[in-house]
Amino acid sequence: MTRRTRIAKSNGKSIGKMKIRLDPVLDIKAAAPLYALLSSRRGGDLAIDASAVERIGGQCLQVLLAARARWEADQRGFLIEGFSPGVIATLRLMGIEPAAFDHRREIDA
Question: Does residue 31 contact residue 60 with C-beta atoms inside 8 Å?
């Protein structure tokens, strides 16, 4: 995942200074690299572009939910945006609403 994950420049909008874009397939093979990538971004606000995601497995879902909880505990902003309708349907099938990936905090302009 690390070699395929593209780090995007922050547009200065949204939730913070760091932004990453997720790969199309987030299966069991992607879970450990995803964890490493997110861990390396800890400490700042993070916005994640999920618009390319076509499939998401339970392991990556757990990694993303755990990351959201860590960012909240660190009092940092965390947002995943751009889920496709198909991925939203998969999330709901697993009992998760897309809003579960949104932890915003006030960010000084």
Answer: yes
Distance, C-alpha 58 to centroid of its chain: 14
CA 46 and chain centroid, separation: 8
Q: Are 16 and 50 in contact, with CB atoms under 8 Å apart?
A: no
78, 67 contact by CB (below 8 A) = yes
Whether pTM > 0.85 for this model: the answer is no
The pLDDT tens digits for 66-91 are 999 999 999 999 999 999 998 999 99
Secondary structure (3-state) at 6: strand
> Do 41 and 68 touch, CB atoms closer than 8 A?
no
Q: Are strands 46-49 and 25-26 parallel, antiparallel or unpaired?
A: unpaired
Higher pLDDT, 104 or 15: 104
Q: What is the mean pLDDT of the chain?
A: 83
C-beta of residue 18 within 8 angstroms of C-beta of residue 46: yes
Is residue 7 within 8 Å of 20, Cβ to Cβ? yes
